[in-house]
């Protein structure tokens, strides 16, 4: 039986963005001297325990925790199994920001003790095998630091440029005109006027925390000296604070507005911080520090000194803190992964939980060490944030996941937030405004550690602690929990750390083979496949009992870890796939031998290892299995239930949307151009295939400069395609056949032949501002466009109109002037177009090119992308002023309202809107609806991951990654959709290989939500053959030398109906040549009953989906790689389980797959010839590129 490999999907999404790699020649040789016997270094699998010194242990009863207090507790840490501690700042500081305002990097603050105390702490910790990590605060010093004092008093002296000084004006009333609009993280201007220097200095944090000037080489050296000092002192590494703020734009440009709603001009979120955080130089600085560490390690043959960085930023930037994608520079050993803090909220469901983990894994390159931060001194405690009942499960998950586990002190005993009033508080941001203290203060998570139930929880000997001790300390304290055998948070935590230290440190290879799977709405399974062992974590996140089937690959599983007071105990043996879990129960299982059928003889050696108790349990379980087998035999195999049609409001959620390209579908009158009557003739094909919704590419009046996407009358049909009457006829016929009809809505621009544009050119009243007009600029007597914006079709996005003597803006061709959505009359006019077609009877709209709807009203130049210098190349501009502007989403929401109002007023089936937006996944989600979930937008926005992420020769990992990229980003309230191809991309057979057509159709059919099929894909059409002379794609025919690369004509050749001349498309001369492949590949040839054709398989898929209706949109699966080239996708609905297995490789594959049922049968025939519907399917056996869909039958559990 094959070992299962579940490979983590890996994408290096981070791009270099012009990071200066000038130091790459200085890369220090890697010190491989300190790996353990299993090839890992001390830090890679460690638990990093964060101590907040002020609140840990007060040794001298002055109310403030101190270094001697930590020394007292070192034995406790060692006993817990902690091997690395990082200390929040203990350096000299006026404590304006809790020690993050440092006045001397080289000395310890007297609150905490002395340098000697630190010496003792490091030595004593090392004796116990504990590493000590210090907090390095590089962005700013205290304004009491000598450097700053010197900088103020002597602007021309050695320290004059140590900080970021700029001239600024102060008038007689004391009002200062700031150097620019930058804001501080704490709100208000990031500048402070200094009366002595009569200049402003920058502070990205509090005014008492002036930013160091990293453009000054002396600062860079001085800070490296700080690192070197502490390395020499003997510390083991650094946690680097707020690194994202290190550098600022040297030109001090104003930052653009974020346009975030509900944020006032004084708040940090008011601006888009493109010039003050994550600047390219920042990453290089981190890499230089890494060099300092590595140089030290190398020179002293010491153990690895590590660096971890704190930056709340996007995942791509987070990866850059690790190093350059090409590996030429190294940065942090790990950059904190805050997904558990930023992505997860109380009451989370499975999808949110899984995506929290997956978001990290789909982005982190394999060679980086992962890390998991559950909490810290800046965020509410885990017990408060998620609920005390989830503490154990979450600790288990973070211990179970590969890489570093980070624990904030107190989480091991499940401490909740303390109670602090504004008067008692110290958090500088929060105490400024007591009205919002409860929302903003970080004091709650900083109250003293609860050691025991004595006065002040044992924090000190009775004097008033700096922050009050939580009143929960009598119940929640270490002493109460640290009792051998007690079912406590602490004892469980200790066993987790021990397990992590022992088990995962000795079986580290293939740690990145990981899958997160939902096994019910509330129960999650995580699989970790090591070289020889398979580990499984199952976590019930719900407050009720759950009986579930977990993904089970046969054999037996030993319970290795178990949360307190659950149904399962450590040492229990599990031999089938059914688990009964108590509320919040979490267990970790290890497969004790691989599948081969449950055999007592085979299992016996394990029984000796596991002891008599387990043997007893094993025998009981055998009886259960035996019974269930009998039961199975006695139960008729009924297959899965057919479900009735769902309510009509949800018809679209399970539909297949079939895109018809009318020009190439069917020509009824012999003019060579497909038309509406042609579609009417062929509607029975859609019905035969089982398709229930179709969308038509534009059929409106158009000069056809851009294949109908240049519309001269939104309310009429182009004569090429027929008449309004034809369209009415099509609608009626479609309705008769139960097929919904969707039209293409093209809101960004009209044709220049549209009457609106003609009237606008003539400045006719009411139409003056229908388009985006501007005089342009006169430079050296020459008229030039108003700004640097470029057209999607290359060249300036502005064309001068001689009649109106002004420029107009066009994102696409000059014949496609952009409508001006800043004009409310335009908005209303376009809503009227929607209403017109709704009244006409259509079922919805596909909305074209939505990211381009709005432009910056100030028409500002777009900045160059880092490292790009060619301002005439569209790809070199960062389209912050022409694409995805915040107003866009609101307009989409307004369009949605028009549809919903119609649906409601007329009490009809939902009228749907689907949007086309090639944009980042975060922005795509905004088209669905707003972040708060209060406003709806598109019913779905096209998901192009299979187009953008898959290439010919794709691997299983690529599919797994593409699916996860989408699923880990889409909020659960939205419906997913899957687009394999369209009229703008090469056909699936050409793009991804014709041998994969069936498997890919099966994949999109089984995934949750909407399936989108481009006409012809159901018969596996390949690209046609078109020469430049025959071509029509306006972008491509401009330059025949690149036609083969750029043209979209290939995927637009006529539909291949049969083997006759012109494939049955037309009696005349087709507008684009019919593919020569039509002789073999055509519908008629594939439409014979019982033959294993693309078309027959597609029909089976439609049938399968129809039967699956109801809960089909619920995502109950994660894609898994089950062996070298086989993908498994499992869907569970109620008690049914469906599994797709797809071999993407050329070689036959056999082995095992994840199963919970006793037996499986083929529910959708195979794409090859090995299986047909109804065949049993036992062990995995698939020839190259074969795919099957299985249905579990009989009872679940064992085999
Ligand atoms: Ca003290
Ligand atoms: Ca800075
Ligand atoms: Ca025609
Ligand atoms: Ca526009």
From TrEMBL:
UniProt enzyme class: hydrolase
MF terms in GO: alpha-1,4-glucosidase activity
Signal peptide limits: 1-21
EC number: 3.2.1.20
GO terms of biological process kind: carbohydrate metabolic process
Residue ranges crossing the lipid bilayer per the database entry: 592-616, 623-642
UniProt KW keywords: Glycoprotein, Glycosidase, Hydrolase, Membrane, Signal, Transmembrane, Transmembrane helix
PANTHER family associated with the record: ALPHA-AMYLASE FAMILY MEMBER (PTHR10357), NEUTRAL AND BASIC AMINO ACID TRANSPORT PROTEIN RBAT (PTHR10357:SF179)
UniProt protein name: alpha-glucosidase
Organism: Exocentrus adspersus
Top-level taxonomy: Eukaryota, Metazoa, Ecdysozoa, Arthropoda, Hexapoda
């Amino acid at each position: 039986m094959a070992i299962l490999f579940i490979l983590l999907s890996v994408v290096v999404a981070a791009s270099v963005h012009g990071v200066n790699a000038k130091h790459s020649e200085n890369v220090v040789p890697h010190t491989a001297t300190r790996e353990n016997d299993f090839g890992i270094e001390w830090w890679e699998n460690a638990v990093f325990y964060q101590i907040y010194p002020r609140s840990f242990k007060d040794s001298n009863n002055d109310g403030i925790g101190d270094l001697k207090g930590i020394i007292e507790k070192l034995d406790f840490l060692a006993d817990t199994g902690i091997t690395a501690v990082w200390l929040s700042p203990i350096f000299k500081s006026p404590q304006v920001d809790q020690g993050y305002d440092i006045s001397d990097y080289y000395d310890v603050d007297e609150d905490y003790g002395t340098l000697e105390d630190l010496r003792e702490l490091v030595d004593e910790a090392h004796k116990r095998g504990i590493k000590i990590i210090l907090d390095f605060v590089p962005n700013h010093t205290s304004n009491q630091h000598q450097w700053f004092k010197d900088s103020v008093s002597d602007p021309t002296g050695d320290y004059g440029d140590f900080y970021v000084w700029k001239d600024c004006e102060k008038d007689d009333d004391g009002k200062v005109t700031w150097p620019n609009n930058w804001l501080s993280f704490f709100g208000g201007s990031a500048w402070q006027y200094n009366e002595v220097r009569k200049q402003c200095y920058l502070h990205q944090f509090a005014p008492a925390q002036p930013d160091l000037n990293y453009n000054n080489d002396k600062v860079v050296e001085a800070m490296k000296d700080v690192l070197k000092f502490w390395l020499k002192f003997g510390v083991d590494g650094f946690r680097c604070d707020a690194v994202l703020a290190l550098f600022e734009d040297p030109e001090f440009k104003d930052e653009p507005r974020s346009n975030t709603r509900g944020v006032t001009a004084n708040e940090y979120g008011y601006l888009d911080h493109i010039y003050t955080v994550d600047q390219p130089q920042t990453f290089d600085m981190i890499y230089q520090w890494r060099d300092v560490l590595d140089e030290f390690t190398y020179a002293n043959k010491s153990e690895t000194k590590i660096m971890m960085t704190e930056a709340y930023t996007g995942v791509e930037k987070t990866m850059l803190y690790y190093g350059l994608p090409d590996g030429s520079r190294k940065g942090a050993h790990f950059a904190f992964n805050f997904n558990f803090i930023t992505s997860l909220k109380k009451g989370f469901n499975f999808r949110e939980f899984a995506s929290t983990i997956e978001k990290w894994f789909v982005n982190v390159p394999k060679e980086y060490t992962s890390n998991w931060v559950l909490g810290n001194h800046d965020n509410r405690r885990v017990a408060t944030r998620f609920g005390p009942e989830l503490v154990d499960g979450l600790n288990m998950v973070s211990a179970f996941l590969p890489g570093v586990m980070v624990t904030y002190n107190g989480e091991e005993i499940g401490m909740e937030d303390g109670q602090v009033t504004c008067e008692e508080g110290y958090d500088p941001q929060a105490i400024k405004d007591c009205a919002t203290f409860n929302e903003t203060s970080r004091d709650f998570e900083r109250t003293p550690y609860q050691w025991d139930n004595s006065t002040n929880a044992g924090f000190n000997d009775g004097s008033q602690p700096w922050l009050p001790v939580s009143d929960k300390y009598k119940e929640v304290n270490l002493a109460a929990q640290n009792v051998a055998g007690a079912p406590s948070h602490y004892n469980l935590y200790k066993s987790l750390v021990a397990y992590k230290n022992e088990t995962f440190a000795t079986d580290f290879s293939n740690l990145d083979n990981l899958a997160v799977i939902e096994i019910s709405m509330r129960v999650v399974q995580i699989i970790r496949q090591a070289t020889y062992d398979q580990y499984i974590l199952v976590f019930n996140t719900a407050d009720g009992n759950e009986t579930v089937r977990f993904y089970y690959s046969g054999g037996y599983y030993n319970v290795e870890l178990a949360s307190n007071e659950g149904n399962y105990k450590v040492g229990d043996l599990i031999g089938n796939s059914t688990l009964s879990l108590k509320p919040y129960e979490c267990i970790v299982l290890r497969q004790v031998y691989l599948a081969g059928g449950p055999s007592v003889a085979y299992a016996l050696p394990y029984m000796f290892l596991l002891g008599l108790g387990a043997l007893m349990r094993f025998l009981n379980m055998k009886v259960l299995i035996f019974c269930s087998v009998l039961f199975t035999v006695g139960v008729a195999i009924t297959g899965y239930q057919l479900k009735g049609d769902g309510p009509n409001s949800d018809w679209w959620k399970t539909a297949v949307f079939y895109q018809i390209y009318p020009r190439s579908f069917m020509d009824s009158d012999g003019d060579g151009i497909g038309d509406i009557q042609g579609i009417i003739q062929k509607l029975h094909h859609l019905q035969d295939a089982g398709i229930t919704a179709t969308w038509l590419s534009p059929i409106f009046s158009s000069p056809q400069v851009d294949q109908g996407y240049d519309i001269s009358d939104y309310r009429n049909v182009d004569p090429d395609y027929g008449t309004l009457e034809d369209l009415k006829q099509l609608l009626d016929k479609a309705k008769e056949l139960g097929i919904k009809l969707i039209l293409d809505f093209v809101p960004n621009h009209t044709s220049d032949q549209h009457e609106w544009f003609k009237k606008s050119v003539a400045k006719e009243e009411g139409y003056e501002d229908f388009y985006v007009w501007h005089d342009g600029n006169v430079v050296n007597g020459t008229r030039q466009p108003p700004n640097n914006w470029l057209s999607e079709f290359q060249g300036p996005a502005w064309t001068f109109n001689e009649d109106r003597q002004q420029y107009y803006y066009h994102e696409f061709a000059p014949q496609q002037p952009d409508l001006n959505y800043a004009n409310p009359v335009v908005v209303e006019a376009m809503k009227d177009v929607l209403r017109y077609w709704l009244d006409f009877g259509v079922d919805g709209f596909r909305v074209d090119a939505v990211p381009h709807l709005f432009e910056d009203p100030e028409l500002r130049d777009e900045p160059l992308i880092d490292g790009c210098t060619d301002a005439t190349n569209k790809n070199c501009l960062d389209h912050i002023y022409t694409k995805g502007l915040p107003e866009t989403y609101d307009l989409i929401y307004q369009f949605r309202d028009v549809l919903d109002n119609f649906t409601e007023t007329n009490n009809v089936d939902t009228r749907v809107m689907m949007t086309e937006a090639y944009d980042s996944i975060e922005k795509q989600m905004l088209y669905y609806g707003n972040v708060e979930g209060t406003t709806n937008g598109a019913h779905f926005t096209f998901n192009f991951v299979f187009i953008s992420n898959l290439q010919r020769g794709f691997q299983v990992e690529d599919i797994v990654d593409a699916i996860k990229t989408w699923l880990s980003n889409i909020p659960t309230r939205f419906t997913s959709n899957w687009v394999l191809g369209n009229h703008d991309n090469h056909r699936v057979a050409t793009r991804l290989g014709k041998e994969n057509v069936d498997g890919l159709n099966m994949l999109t059919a089984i995934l949750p939500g909407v399936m989108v099929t481009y006409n012809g894909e159901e018969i596996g059409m390949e690209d046609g053959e078109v020469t430049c002379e025959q071509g029509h794609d306006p972008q491509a025919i401009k330059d025949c030398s690149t036609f083969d690369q750029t043209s979209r004509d290939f995927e637009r050749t006529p539909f291949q109906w049969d083997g006759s001349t012109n494939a049955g498309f037309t009696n005349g001369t087709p507008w684009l040549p019919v593919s020569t492949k039509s002789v073999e590949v055509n519908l008629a040839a594939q439409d014979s009953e019982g033959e294993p054709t693309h078309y027959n398989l597609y029909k089976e898929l439609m049938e399968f989906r129809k039967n699956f209706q109801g809960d089909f949109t619920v995502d109950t699966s994660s894609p898994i790689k089950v062996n070298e080239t086989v993908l498994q996708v499992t869907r569970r609905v109620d008690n049914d389980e469906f599994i797709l297995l797809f071999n993407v490789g050329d070689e036959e594959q056999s082995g095992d797959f994840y199963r919970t049922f006793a037996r499986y049968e083929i529910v959708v025939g195979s794409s090859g010839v090995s299986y047909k519907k109804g065949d049993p399917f036992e062990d995995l056996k698939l020839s190259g590129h074969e795919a099957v869909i299985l249905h579990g039958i009989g009872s679940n559990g064992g085999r």
